[in-house]
Amino acid sequence: MAVTSMANSSIRDFTKFNNMSTTFGASPYPCQYVVIAGGGSGGGEVGGGGGAGGYRSNVLGESSGGGASAESALSLSAGTYTITVGAGGPAITTSTTVGANGVDSTFATVTSLGGGGGGSYNNINGLSGGAGGGGGHSSGSTPGSGQASQGYGGGTVGFTLTAGGGGGAGAVGDSSVSGQSGDGGAGVTSSITGSAVGRAGGGGGGYIQNSSAGYGVGTDGGGTGGTRSPGVAGTAGDVNKGAGGGGGDASREDSGAGGSGVVIFSLPTQAIVTFSGGVTQTSAIVGVNTVYTVTATSTGSETVTIA
């Protein structure tokens, strides 16, 4: 028997379902991200620790850098967007030389600033950045400041022959005291990839005395400061964590390089995502989203296309 009539409520329900089925999964897509810039390198010759790269995040329930709450929700329409992973500042191999700032990271409209280089011997100040570099050696060396909502400043020099720790995304670098250089400031932990990982910690300050105990240590990927005896150089910040490098030692001057940054973002699994040829990335499904982790870009003009 042919159906010749349908209740008005049934017609409305059918129309509503039909409209939903044609738009479900279409752009604009909700997007969560963690964007971390490259970390700064430690300063040469009893150098301050390098500051972490700027940390920006809009992951619900998590934090951005500098003590800020998660940023506003982001929706991305179908289109092509710039993506850049910033390199860490290079290691310093000469005395009385400030550490190098890291390079900015960018994803769509979000840019995080490179971390500040650590200060050095002879009153050379730490540099400002996403998080600031620690003060170096002399009490006249001031630390760099962090960018608001991205990171904290570096630690001050509280006693001659020591250096301050680099600022982290989650805390100020430790100031030095007699016999002890400052530790790097803590980073920020995110579970965007499905596992809790701490990133963007500051580097520890270098130490001048003949002791292996007075150097500052890094946290959340930050490098360890160097020391005169046994002549150990500062160590590098962890790659793809945007961590600061450790300050240089007294005899070799060598500091640790800053760690490279990373761009992590998630989109609904329905989104079709492609990258330009110079992008190094991996992806994994976490719940109803695909999470993309971009660890390197070969040029400053790489892109991601969303359809």
Describe the model.
5% of the residues lie in helices and 21% in strands. By secondary structure, it is mostly beta strands. Strands 1, 2, 3, 9, 11 and 12 form a six-stranded antiparallel beta sheet that branches. It has a five-stranded antiparallel beta sheet with strand order 6-5-4-13-10, with no helix packed on it. The chain has a two-stranded antiparallel sheet with strand order 7-8. The longest helix is centred in the first third of the chain and has 16 residues, at 8-23. The chain starts with 7 loop residues before the first helix and ends with a strand.
The largest β sheet comes out as: 6 strands, antiparallel
Count of domain modules: 1
The H-and-E topology, N to C, reads as HEEEEEEEEEEEEE
Task: List low-pLDDT spans.
Answer: 1-23
Strand content: 15-25%
Straight-line distance between termini: 45 Å
Number of helices: 1
Evaluate the radius of gyration.
23 Å
Helix proportion: under 10%
What best-fitting shape do the alpha-carbon axes yield?
Answer: elongated
Q: How many distinct beta strands?
A: 13
Structural class: mainly beta
Averaging pLDDT over every residue, what do you get?
Answer: 91
Protein topology:
Layout: H1 8-23, E1 29-36, E2 55-57, E3 74-76, E4 79-84, E5 105-107, E6 110-112, E7 188-190, E8 197-199, E9 262-268, E10 273-275, E11 279-286, E12 289-297, E13 303-306
Antiparallel strand pairs: 1-2, 1-3, 1-9, 4-5, 4-13, 5-6, 7-8, 9-12, 10-13, 11-12
